[in-house]
Amino acid sequence: MLLKGLILAGGYATRLRPLSCTKPKLLFPLVGTPLIERMIEWLGRGNVKEVILAVNHLSDKLRMEVGSKKSGSGVFLSVEETPLGTGGPLRLADKLLAGENPVVVVNGDVAADIDLESLTRTHEMSGADASMTVFSVRDTRPFGLVTLDSDDRIVGFEEKSPLNRGPGWINAGVYILNQNVIEMIPKGRAVSLEREIFPVLAKRGKLKGWKHSGFWYDIGKVQDYVTANMELLARPGYLPGRSGGLAPISSIEQPIYLGDGCLVGKDSKIGPRAILSAGVKVKRGAKIHDSIVFEESVLGENSLVEGSVIGEATTIGKNAVVGSGSIIAGEVTVPDGMTLKPGSIVLN
Ligand code: GDD
Ligand code: MG
Description:
Elements: E1 3-8, E2 29-30, E3 33-34, H1 35-45, E4 48-55, H2 59-67, E5 75-79, H3 88-92, H4 94-97, E6 103-107, E7 110-112, H5 116-126, E8 130-137, E9 144-148, E10 154-159, E11 168-177, H6 179-184, H7 193-204, E12 207-211, E13 216-218, H8 222-233, E14 245-246, E15 251-252, E16 256-258, E17 263-264, E18 269-270, E19 274-276, E20 281-282, E21 287-289, E22 291-293, E23 298-299, E24 304-306, E25 309-310, E26 315-316, E27 321-322, E28 327-328, E29 333-334, E30 339-340, E31 345-346
Parallel strand pairs: 1-4, 1-6, 4-5, 8-12, 14-17, 15-18, 16-19, 17-20, 18-21, 19-22, 20-23, 21-24, 22-25, 23-26, 24-27, 25-28, 26-29, 27-30, 28-31
Antiparallel strand pairs: 2-3, 6-11, 7-13, 8-11, 9-10, 9-11
C-alpha cells in the first residue's frame, strides 16, 4: 500500500535559538546528515513515496534543499501564510493528501527509528480512525500525555499536563490518520491536533496507541539535539569517521564523525565525541571534543572548542577558546584570541 505523508515543519523553533535563526529544524544535521534527508529516507522505507512539507518559516532554505537532488522526488511544499498549528496544515493540504489510504503525519523534529510498516499494519487491523506512536519517558510534562487501556487503545490524551510529574507514555509525534480525521479539522484557522482532535478521538475510542521502544528524540531543544547526535555517534556503524583530509600527525580519539570534505590540520586533536559536518576546516593545533560543528565552519589555529554547538559557516578565530556548553550561531566570527566563558551564547 503506497501512502502519502505530511511533515509538520513550521513553527519558530525558539528552543533551538540562535542556531535556528539561520537554519530550519529540518535541516539540522544528525551526525552530518540533515534531519529531512533521514526522514524522507525513513518514510520511503515505510512505503510513503509522496511527502508534503508543511512550512511557514525559513521556507526558502527548505525549498532549496527539497529542490536539490539529495532529497529525491515526490516531495512537495505546502506553505502557510500564517502558522496553522499542527492540525491546520493537514486541512490546508487536504486535496494533496486525498485518496483511499490513511496518511502518515510526522512532527518535523522527531529523530527516531520507528518501524513504520508495523505501525501501518497495526493501524489497519485496529479499526481505529487514527494511530499514534507512543514512547515511554521519565517525565511526561513537556509532551502529550497518553493513557492506554490493556489493548493499547488511547483512552485519554492531555497535552503538556503539568500535574503528572512521573514517568509515563507520551505522544511520539508520528501518526497514521484516516481521511475522516482530516475532515474533522476546522478550515481556515490554526488548529492543534493535540488539544482539539486527539482528546475527542480518545473519548470516542477511535485512537490506537502503538508502542515504540528504541531510539527516539524530539530534537527541538539544544540539549536533546546534542544527546540524540551523541547517541547515534556512539553506534558502531559510525566508526571511524569519514575523512576528507586528515593530517597524519593530528590525533583522534573516537568516536568522531568527519563529513565529506573536512580538512584537519597538523597537531590538531579531534574527539572524543566530535561531530564535524561536511566541509569543516580544523586548522593546525586546534582542539575539539564533545561538540557539534555545522557545515563549512572553520576552527582557527590553536583554537579550543569544548562541549559546544557551532552553527554553519562560522569562524572561530586563532587561539580563541569556546567554553563548555556554548552555542555559537551560524555565520558568526569569533575574533582571534577571544575566550568565551562556559555557557556563552553568541548571536549573529
Ligand atoms: N506547518 C506548521 N505550522 N508546523 C508547525 C506549526 C505551524 O503552525 N507549529 C508547530 N509546527 C511543527 C513543529 O515544527 C514541530 O515539528 C511539530 O509541529 C510539533 O511542534 P513542537 O512545537 O515541536 O511541539 P512540542 O515538541 O512541544 O510537542 C509536540 O511533540 C511532542 C513529541 O515531541 C506534541 O505533538 C506533543 O504531544 C508530543 O509529545
Ligand atoms: Mg517538538
